[in-house]
Amino acid sequence: MIDFNNKGFFKLKQNDEYAERVNDLLIEGEEIISAYKSMRDGVVFTNKRIIAVNVQGLTGSKKDFTSLPYKKIETYSIETSGTFDLDSELTIYFSALGTVRFEFTGKTRLTEISQVITTYVC
């Protein structure tokens, strides 16, 4: 399982590379909303869950995929970017897992992600 307390994992920038990496994990009716990448790791938001990809080892051939279903979310918070602080954050509180925080650089589609999460939380 990915160490979600390691903040370095979650400086994410929009990148469709990870959308391709999780295609085989998608179930019927599941669609990718957006994908993000840090140095080696990535996160993919679908219409049903979040898939976090942790690339391991020197060659990067070993990967850990963590599925975080929206139905397990208790609450969440979004911090948008500002004039001088261009980063934005998504903090999610999962039952039985705890807090997961994603930090984004550049433009993100947090409102679209927020709408999908809200359909499962409410």
Automatic annotation (TrEMBL):
Under the heading InterPro entries, the entry gives: PHb, PHb_sf
Specify the signal sequence span: none
Every copy of the Bacterial Pleckstrin homology domain together lies at 13-121
Please give the name of this protein: PH domain-containing protein
